[in-house]
Amino acid sequence: MTGTTPLARPVRAVGRRWAIWAEHAGQLGMLVWATFSAAFRLRVSFGEFVNQLYVMGVQSIPIVAVTSILSGIVTSQQGGYQITATVPLYVLGSVTAKSIALELAPVLTAVVLVGRVGARITAELGTMVVSEQIDAYRSLGRDPLIVLGAPRILAGLIVMPLLVGIANIVGLFSGMVSAQLSLGLSFETFLFGARLFWLSWDLFYSLLKSIAFGFAIPVIAIHMGLRTRGGAEGVGSTTTASVMFQTLTIFILDAMFPSLFLD
Questions:
Q1: Residue 90, domain member (yes or no)
Q2: CA separation, residue 45 to residues 42, 49, 157, 161, 228 (Å)
Q3: Within a domain: 38
Q4: CA distances for 203 relative to 23, 103, 200, 206, 217, angstroms
Q5: Domain that holds residue 51
Q6: pLDDT digits over 74-132, tens only?
Q7: What is the pLDDT of residue 85?
Q8: Which residue, among 132, 147, 115, has the nearest Cα to 31 in the 3D structure?
């Protein structure tokens, strides 16, 4: 009788929702614990770790470089358009450098890796789940979280800051070239403006943000991949949901960083 009361359905719906969130939180916690526990005990496959460094890092350099070049050009041109006659033109160097280091390089690089790396990891592990390869690992006494998850998470923590560092350099250089071609601003004047308002904390902030993104992307991708159900259709829907969650997480973390580290 209590199940038919008007209050029962919304209470059950809320309970099911909280149960799902608790299940996600527990599985994410187990994944993170297994990863760092395996790393401290040196149980991570070095060969697989190096392979993930190559796949996630080296193979991502071209698309990260192209994205950085375009972001540097756009930032420089739009900054030059907004600068009025009362503002010294060398300020464009500071605007471009800070915009790229604090925001564009880490965020755009993370979005690129979501599409290129995060989706691939989810689809790869999801396919292994539906084809029962994950069950085969467990039957052999091997933990998939350690064998498949740990190398990808550790590689993401190392690769992402390096890619963001490349994005910072390439974006700043492309912005400098764009300012010289479109506004006639010399390299010396541009760099003078960039150094004038530059803080060492800006670079640390950019790399700190990249570490957070480099951790979140593979963790969510692996977690969603191992939850795949329902054959090929399930792999597709899980990959779509994984990309959505990864992108949303990046933007949430990005919104949290200024209040935590720039106040």
A1: yes
A2: 8, 6, 16, 22, 24
A3: no
A4: 37, 11, 6, 5, 21
A5: 45-261
A6: 998 888 887 766 778 888 889 899 999 999 999 999 999 999 999 999 999 999 988 88
A7: 65
A8: 147
